[in-house]
Amino acid sequence: MKLINEDQYKFPIVKFTYNAYNKILDLINATNLEIAWLGVVTEIEPGEYLVIDILVYPQIVDATNVESDDDKYPQWLMDVPNNTFNKLRLQGHSHVDMHVSPSANDKQNVRDFITQIQVNDYYIFMIINKDEDIHMTIVDKRQNVIFQDNEIEIELPEKVNSWADRDIEKYVSRRPVKVRRSLNNDLIDNHGNIWEVNK
Ligand SMILES: [Zn+2]
User: Fold this and answer.
1) Distance, CA 108 to ligand 1 centroid (Å)?
2) Of 6 and 119, which is predicted with more confidence?
3) pLDDT at 177 (0 to 100)
4) How far, in Å, from the CA of 111 to the mean position of ligand 1?
5) Closest CA to 104 of 65, 69, 133
């Protein structure tokens, strides 16, 4: 395995469904712990990944560390339906309010995990904080490379159709400012104040 930043590789794209990304935001904003999750991922085309859901697994956390709960995790994993289990290709965790660069533990976790990834497979590691800074690492065993950080294009879903957007659209209108247009194209309000036209 090697770290690369060269032209001969097509850099990967990671996209999220609205549902998956908002579940992540809900989760990290609900706690100040370094909570972690697994992601259900499909590969739309080679090197283009879509995260379609996330699952919270049994874990033991404190403010700066997270590990799976060894007593409960194996059973939890067995209870995941097969077609979901087969698409688990992402580990994510929150750095809460801290920067998102991988800690020494995070890097060791990736190294330890590399041997568990099949030779024709890939795996995505994601760190996010409450400012929505995101750091990703993708181990691609098919090309035998690791992509990191700005080698990975991240596409977030547009924030549409939330109840707030819908209700603002439906009920809230901005009070119109009464102006008359002056000859030199400035706007003058009722009190005779002139506002420059901002273009
Ligand atoms: Zn971390």
Assistant:
1) 10
2) 119
3) 64
4) 14
5) 65
